[in-house]
Amino acid sequence: MERGFDYYAVMAYHRQAMRELRMEETKALDWVGEITEKAVSSIGDPSRVMMKIQVLDWKSHEIVPVKETERILGGILGRGQVSLAFVPYLDPFPLHQLKNKWRPK
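Structure (tokenized):
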């Protein structure tokens, strides 16, 4: 924080956490929301927080289902208007189906 970076990126990779920390999906999704809340609280400005969301399971190489990603977005966006990065970029991932989730109302 003392270095004064413009943005702070947080790797909120729920499936990786599930595997490494032996979490169930519901717990991992809650965990991502908690991490977002802590980042926003620490930095003080949600617009300077970028949450990196996992859209590919690193181990199985399966694309994360849209419904699962929607649940992650719900936990993140309830903490403020943070920036989002969907990792890795996948052409077949249907981002257009999620766009209405993060548009200002």
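Helices lie at 14-20, 25-43, 66-77, 99-102. The mean pLDDT is 88.
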